[in-house]
Amino acid sequence: MKRPPIKWELVAKDGEARCGLLHTRRGVIETPVFMPVGTLGTVKGTRFEALESAELDARIILGNTYHLWLRPGAETIAACGGLHRFIGWERALLTDSGGFQVFSLGALRKVCEEGTEFRSHVDGSLRFLSPEVSMQVQAALASDIVMAFDECAPGEASHEVARESMLLTARWAERSRKSFNVLQNEGSTQQEQKAGESESSQQTAGGRGNEQRSSSVLPPAPASCFLSFKSALRAPHSALELSGEQALFGIIQGATHLDLRRESLARTVEIGFEGYALGGLSVGEEKRVMYQVVAETAPLMPVNSPRYLMGVGTPEDLIECVARGLDMFDCVLPTRNGRTGQAFTSRGKLNVKNAQWTRDMRPLDENCACMVCRRHTRAYLRHLYLTGEMLASILLTHHNLFFFLDTMRRVRQAIRSGDFTRFRREFLEGVNSGVA
Ligand SMILES: [Zn+2]
């Protein structure tokens, strides 16, 4: 590998809270960082110019492997030069592995040693996702940070179920790492030859089964996947020009069982990743339990690598988990709630539909400096929302993204100045005081 794809350095620490710099090939990201979610290649309701503006200044956004794999397809995105070029975003991108989306399909999926079989929510077709397929799709997307393919146990999973799931995640992590390394270390020409060989070996390997396999043996992926991937490699602007420049994060599972979390962490660190994530939280467990898992696990995570809490959460969750030593966060809340008429403010959530705002000439949040709060009133936003105007979603989403991103700016400032404890107390008092 030419150079480390990412490098994280600690800038300041206040208690367990860490402030750092994540160097990527597409710019420097200050941590703790909130990453807006761009499920289908768009952060819903927001233009990229707004995300890049000094006001929001989002340095990294997410793409969802599952959704992009189904539509428009990894082959199409690779042919368009990778996800950055396809969507017109030059800053950093992180893609998830697709594991969580498949988990949320519930009864529509079937998990076996090799991977997960599921029915597409788009057209009902039968699809198969495995560590190898996920790595190939994420290589084709050419994201800057790739997530290992994991299995997510429900929040209330018993010890036995959670352990089995955690061990499967560990075996899949090893397969993800191996597959990722092959993809990264070989040049495009070698990749093409390799794909040709893989294709012919796949044709003789037969179908996939449910039998147990040693983690040291790479199981076959469906031939159709390799065919798609092979043609993606031949694409005129192959995303794999970037081979060797992606980073891979491992995911720690174990539901709410602290011993399993510790075991998962040890197994994941042993394999070795460029960053480490806590997965399987905020999936039905109580909030205090989630905080406990974070508090017990985060301090044991490698100190020189970024620590990412996947899919969490509210502004309070971000502050509480920064306080427990985590660096990276993503959540659909600011965008999703923006579309359903809910604003996050320094005094808690504001429901824009409420009749009490009919003639209220105040901004959404009197402490907010965003362009929506500088120009528009609660009365106007309520009117837009109730009349179904698309501008309501756009403005609420902008305010919410600003609130999340600006909160993280203030968090970083507080950590750097050794003032995080006071900031945390005042922030939590504020959001719990209620909008009036
Ligand atoms: Zn605002």
Count of extended strands: 16
- Residue-averaged pLDDT: 89
Beta-strand content bin: 15-25%
Provide the gyration radius in Å: 22 Å
In DSSP terms (H or I, runs of 4 or more residues), the helix count works out at 17
The termini sit apart by 56 Å
Give the overall shape, derived from the CA principal axes. Answer: globular
List bound small molecules. zinc ion
Judged by helices, strands and strand pairing, the structural class is alpha/beta
Q: How would you write the strand order of the largest sheet? A: 4-5-6-10-11-12-13-14
- Poorly predicted sequence stretches spanning 5 or more consecutive residues: 187-191, 201-239
Report the sheet with the most strands, covering strand number, pairing sense and barrel closure. Answer: 8 strands, parallel, barrel
In helices, the fraction of residues equals 40-55%
Secondary structure layout:
Layout: E1 7-14, E2 17-24, E3 27-31, E4 33-38, H1 48-52, E5 60-63, H2 65-70, H3 74-79, H4 83-87, E6 92-95, H5 99-103, E7 109-111, E8 116-119, E9 126-129, H6 131-141, E10 145-147, H7 159-185, H8 188-205, H9 223-233, E11 247-252, H10 258-271, E12 275-278, H11 287-297, E13 307-309, H12 315-323, E14 328-331, H13 333-339, E15 342-345, E16 348-351, H14 371-375, H15 378-386, H16 390-416, H17 420-431
Parallel strand pairs: 4-5, 4-14, 5-6, 6-10, 10-11, 11-12, 12-13, 13-14
Antiparallel strand pairs: 1-2, 2-3, 7-8, 8-9, 15-16
Helix pairs in contact: 6-7, 6-9, 7-10, 8-9, 12-16, 12-17, 13-16, 15-16, 16-17
Bound molecules: zinc ion.
